């Protein structure tokens, strides 16, 4: 594969060569199988020595033990890495999902050793370019002419140990927006980093429900108005009427708007608290929404608002 790449690329050396998806599958076992036992890593190290690979690194996906293991190889001189590719954005910095490791740790370990980081998923699979209206508004207040995506790109580019940020660009506008953001890059200030951390927390705490109000799940045998509940909740998330906790400056106002609006949009007997979890609605939903779980989540939120325990 390596030799074929050289042929296909019509070159006799490569600037950057990566061991792909280190940390996936069965962790260390898979890493050893793919790169150590068969001699692939030894071969690539020799190729680098010969100058045919200018920079040798790996992309990381998954098991932290493997990440630490490869850095220990670097520390001992067994294999010196020229760069490492990690998933990093303002959500994954402190709130990586179960399958991933917080970028704060990954980046920190690389920075300690002076290993440049290549960033993948700066937009978290596109989610950071599609924030809800209220979160977009907060960002626009600070930088009115800039796109939502540009905040995520600036965030990724703000760290001094970052070598480059990879992004998928589908349209010419994406490319133009990226070029604008990085020419020149204006690193995020401490205050902006705090705003993005707050954005991440709100985004994770109140994900909208991808309900299109198609009504296919209706009627519910227990009388719930499923689409109306989701529509009210989504509207409040989009308008910012979902306080993070009781310390939130807009808490009282948001609480009132949510609870009064809820009673107006959905009669009491049709609200989420009446769902018995029979699951009859689930198979009808073309969006594969786990309806009873989502209703429980919304109901918990409503109860916390009512009891003042948020
Ligand atoms: S799971 Fe809840 S919402 Fe769905 S049909 Fe049963 S009672 Fe109705
Ligand atoms: S079937 Fe799914 S998408 Fe359609 S209204 Fe019900 S929950 Fe919403």
Polypeptide structure, described:
- By secondary structure, the protein is an alpha/beta fold.
- It has 2 domains: 202 residues, TIM Barrel; 82 residues, no CATH class.
- The protein is built from 13 helices and 5 strands.
- Helix 11 packs antiparallel against helix 12.
- The protein is elongated.
- Keywords: Iron, Iron-sulfur, Metal-binding.
- The CATH topology of the largest domain corresponds to TIM Barrel
Rough outline:
elongated
The biggest beta sheet reads: 5 strands, parallel
Q: What sequence of helices (H) and strands (E) makes up the elements? A: HEHHEHEHHEHHEHHHHH
Number of domains: 2
* N- and C-termini, Cα separation: 56 Å
- Helix content, binned percent: 40-55%
Strand content: 5-15%
Structure classification = alpha/beta
Strand arrangement, major sheet: 1-2-3-4-5
| C-alpha-based Rg, rounded | 24 Å
CATH architecture classification name of the largest domain:
Alpha-Beta Barrel
Pfam families: Aldo_ket_red, Fer4_9
GO molecular function: iron-sulfur cluster binding; metal ion binding
Keywords: Iron, Iron-sulfur, Metal-binding
């Amino acid at each position: 594969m390596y030799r074929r790449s050289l042929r296909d690329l019509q070159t006799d050396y490569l600037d950057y060569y990566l061991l792909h998806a280190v940390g996936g599958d069965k962790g260390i076992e898979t890493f050893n199988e793919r790169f150590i036992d068969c001699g692939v890593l030894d071969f690539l190290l020799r190729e680098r020595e010969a100058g045919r690979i200018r920079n040798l690194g790996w992309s990381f996906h998954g098991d932290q033990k493997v990440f630490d293991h490869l850095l220990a190889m670097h520390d001992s001189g067994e294999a010196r890495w020229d760069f490492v590719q990690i998933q990093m954005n303002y959500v994954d910095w402190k709130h990586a999902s179960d399958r991933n490791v917080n970028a704060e740790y990954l980046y920190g370990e690389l920075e300690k050793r002076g290993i440049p980081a290549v960033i993948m998923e700066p937009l978290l699979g596109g989610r950071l370019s599609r924030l809800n209206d209220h979160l977009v508004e907060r960002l626009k207040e600070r930088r009115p002419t800039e796109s939502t995506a540009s905040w995520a790109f600036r965030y990724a580019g703000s760290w001094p140990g970052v070598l480059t940020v990879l992004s998928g660009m589908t349209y010419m506008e994406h490319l133009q927006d990226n070029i604008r953001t990085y020419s020149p890059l204006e690193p995020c200030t401490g205050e902006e980093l705090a705003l993005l951390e707050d954005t991440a927390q709100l985004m994770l705490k109140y994900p909208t429900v991808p309900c299109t109000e198609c009504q296919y799940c209706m009627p519910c045998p227990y009388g719930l108005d499923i689409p109306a509940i989701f529509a009210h909740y989504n509207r409040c998330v989009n308008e910012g009427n979902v306080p993070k906790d009781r310390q939130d400056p807009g808490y009282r106002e948001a609480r009132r708007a949510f609870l009064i609006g809820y009673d107006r949009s959905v009669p009491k007997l049709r609200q989420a608290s009446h769902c018995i979890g029979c699951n009859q609605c689930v198979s009808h939903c073309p969006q594969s929404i786990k309806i009873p779980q989502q209703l429980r989540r919304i109901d918990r939120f409503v109860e916390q608002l009512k009891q003042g325990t948020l």
